[in-house]
Amino acid sequence: MQAGFAxxxxxxxxxxxxxxxxxxxxxxxxxxxxxxWAFGYAITFGDGNAxxxxxxxxxxxxxxxxxxxxxxSPLDNGSIFLLFQTAFAAVSLAxxxxxxxxRAKLVVYVTFGIIFSIIIxxxxxxxxxxxxxxxxxxxxxFAGSTVVHLTGAIAALIGTLLLGPRIxxxxxxxxxxxxxxHNQVYTVIGGIVLWxxxxxxxAGSTVSTADGFFGYVALTxxxxxAAGALAAMIMAKILxxxxxxxxxxxxxxxxxxxxxxxxxxxxxxxxxxxxxxxxGVTYWTSIYFEKKGLDDPVYAFSVHGIAGIIxxxxxxxxxxxxxVEYTGVGDKGLFYGGxxxxxxxxxxxxxxxxxxxxxxxxxVLFILKKTIGLRVTPEEEISGLxxxxxxxxxxxxxxxxQFMKVD
Length: 407
Fold this sequence. Notes:
mainly alpha; 16 helices
């Protein structure tokens, strides 16, 4: 997943920032691996109360069972489950970074990343996955449309708003200018890598291959992604007149985000519907928010936020009785005779998680803005974060005069 984000985001941004954008995926995974191991995992999955976990700091290894008989009880066999869950936490932080791209200071990534990995992500995770109050209500979020994607997207939105648009993004009359990414092929390859990675993300969340349910979740995941690609392409053709390639990639990702909550609860046909809705709506919202003055370089809020909401709410409509019975989580959806109960639980989860993430993110980033500052100087932004933050360009032979060929 981190490799996919590195390619996707680097390809979707400018050449002068490509090394920085790709490199921060290494930074975020290293940071999350340490901080989530020490603190975040215990807050997410440790015994505690309805708000947060309070036990299991600094996971030290397997405390029960033996080789060949390893359960996935989070704190009894922590090292296995910790490693799996670290990937989810790192993906959520990578999503947040999308809204910061091309203008945020490196120190902001480090500072906010630590707080995100200790407080923001783990508390939402505990509410829904760790036995918290939303879990008690039966909220259905199988692999993290809300826990992972909406959480990261709300943080990205707050960062985008506080940072302000990139230099040259908007004209004096508020109309947006296109700032194309430097490598569309990277963007496509990154999207494909993420598509493959999502099988580990969604199907891997069954934590078993014994009964074939792993394969069913992989099927619904794939069907949604395929529908999202086509729906986004059609929407781009309708609204923009061209079959935009980046729109297709984002359509795949939006569909994957949406099916992440519902992949274990819906029938195959419903996965196609959910993926198509997410893919098409996401393209429209990306244009809408940009026209309203939001400079979200990789459309993190549309792809992961709007689609995360669609996916989380979708089980309130489409959760199949037989699959709810099999998973034992929540109730069946409106279209299967379950009434509005599950839809209400899903909506409450979206609102509560969104408000919490927005509030904490705003407080942290506002304090950083008033103290160390969020944004690099205009001169550093114009020269590119590769050179200003890291001392070398990702493409030195194209951008650095001392490496340019002279005839």
